[in-house]
Specification:
By secondary structure, this protein is an all-alpha fold. It is built from two helices and no strands. Helix content is 87%, strand content 0%.
């Protein structure tokens, strides 16, 4: 009889202890999920930055391909006319000088070398 009464008497305390353990485990799970969410956000940002770099690189490559093709087409069009070839060469020199100046103006200075 005392055993039964003892179990009945201790039942609420046992339930409260189990409840406290469950809450503690839930807090641990929530903490891990929060850390995982933070890491996932960082990973998503890194992937987005990489995608932007790839897109920019692809755009640059396509622009270079178009430029080379256009130069070849222009040279083919004036191949029989030496004067027109020289005009095209002059145009290309002017364009390349303007491009070089723009690249130089928009390129940040190199950081100083570590000592």
């Amino acid at each position: 009889m005392f055993s039964f009464l003892n179990r009945v008497w201790n039942f609420p305390q046992t339930v409260l202890q189990q409840h406290a353990e469950i809450i503690s485990q839930q807090k641990t799970i929530l903490s891990l999920l929060t850390k995982g969410d933070s890491k996932m956000s960082t990973l998503i940002e890194a992937i987005a930055a990489l995608q932007a770099e790839v897109a920019a690189e692809t755009t640059v490559e396509q622009s270079a391909i178009t430029l080379i093709k256009n130069i070849a087409d222009q040279l083919s069009a004036v191949a029989g006319d030496p004067e027109a070839v020289m005009e095209l060469v002059d145009q290309m020199k002017q364009s390349s000088e303007a491009l070089a100046a723009a690249v130089l103006a928009n390129t940040p200075a190199a950081p100083p070398a570590p000592e």
